[in-house]
Amino acid sequence: MAERHYVIIGNGPAGYYAALTLRQKAPFARITIVSKTWESCYSPHKLPALIAGKIGEKDLYISSFESYQANNIKLRCCQAVVELNLENREIILEHKEVIRFDGCIIAVGGMPHIPEPFLAFKDDLVTLKSLEDARTWLARLSDVDSVLLLGGGITALPILKTLHHLDIKTMFMLDQHGVRSFSRCAPASEADVKKRLDGLGVKILEYSKIQDIVAQSNGSCVVHFADFSVDVDMIGAFFGLVPNVSFLSGSGLRIDQGNLSRRPGPPAQTQVPHSRPPEHRSRHRRILQSTITCLPPFFGMRDRYPPNFSDVNR
Ligand SMILES: Cc1cc2nc3c(=O)[nH]c(=O)nc-3n(C[C@H](O)[C@H](O)[C@H](O)COP(=O)(O)OP(=O)(O)OC[C@H]3O[C@@H](n4cnc5c(N)ncnc54)[C@H](O)[C@@H]3O)c2cc1C
């Protein structure tokens, strides 16, 4: 019997540990991890410690390149998946190469979300999800006296701790999502959340839409909101993560709150409609159940959530 080929999309903690588990369960199968970045697997939750100078880049890594070889797992770096064809059981890479699979695991994690009112200023906002983002923070923070944080997704807490540690003046414009996620970490009212941040020396700004950002000759910028303006050196955006799954568009699949499903009803805005006849659709469902697994973001590190306020003080 021909060996089965399992393809894992994504080389974060979820993809890497999925590959090791598969290797144990299927010792003779071909296993390929496709990753759009160059690195071996690392822990994104350690990036704030890297920025704070508490650890070096080498301390981020969970796996070495040798460990893939040792487990007979093929790692294909710098190769983004742009399409999934479920009928033919194949993925298509950015450079048009097609890889066939018998089973596929989607472990692509999330990417930073920028809400619509802030999209026009996307290029002025610095996010924190990847090692590349962390390098940007590292390069910029050496010249920075003040940072404005927008949003407040749960990953804003460790960066707040980092800025506190580096003695950088921090302003925070918390949105409702931020207040909710902070309250979940340490059950507290909105007023209490704000009081605790105030206790850390963080200035809280009223939630408002950015009207304009004007660069200054000294490298800082003035951020104009509806009723007030602030002068800062850097703006961080922490509006949470959204699944990184644009390549599913056209596959007939979608991810809804971390669950993989066939797309019911009319197609979503950014996705193309499928025109398969009903008999193909039930075949589609069978293939889906037997060949595709989706690991939701946070799968790799579920036990480490949530961080909490006492962490910020440490
Ligand atoms: C600052 C910060 C703090 C955090 N703190 C915690 C914490 O305390 N606890 C916790 O549980 N989690 C925390 N997280 C979240 C953490 O990122 C996730 O829990 C963890 O990384 C999820 O692992 P993953 O493998 O699912 O996804 P990821 O680590 O995001 O890995 C996904 C991989 O897929 C690759 N990929 C994406 N799209 C494609 C494509 N089309 N083709 C090929 N490859 C692709 C990406 O390049 C990436 O390498 C934190 C995150 C950050 C940024």
Keywords summarizing the entry:
five-stranded parallel beta sheet; alpha/beta; binds flavin-adenine dinucleotide; disordered C terminus; FAD/NAD(P)-binding domain; 10 helices; elongated; 314 residues; 2 domains
How would you explain this protein's 3D organization?
With 314 residues, the protein is of the alpha/beta class. It has helices at residues 13-25, 47-51, 65-70, 116-119, 131-141, 156-165, 176-185, 190-199, 278-291, 309-313; strands at residues 5-9, 30-34, 73-76, 81-85, 90-93, 98-100, 103-106, 110-112, 125-126, 146-151, 169-174, 203-204, 210-215, 221-225, 229-232, 234-238, 241-243, 253-256, 259-262, 292-294. It folds into two domains: 5-109, FAD/NAD(P)-binding domain (3-Layer(bba) Sandwich); 112-240, FAD/NAD(P)-binding domain (3-Layer(bba) Sandwich). 28% of the residues lie in helices and 26% in strands. The chain has a five-stranded parallel sheet. A hairpin with a 4-residue loop joins β5 and β6. It starts with a strand and ends with a helix. The structure holds flavin-adenine dinucleotide.
Describe the structure concisely for a colleague:
The protein is of the alpha/beta class and 314 residues long.
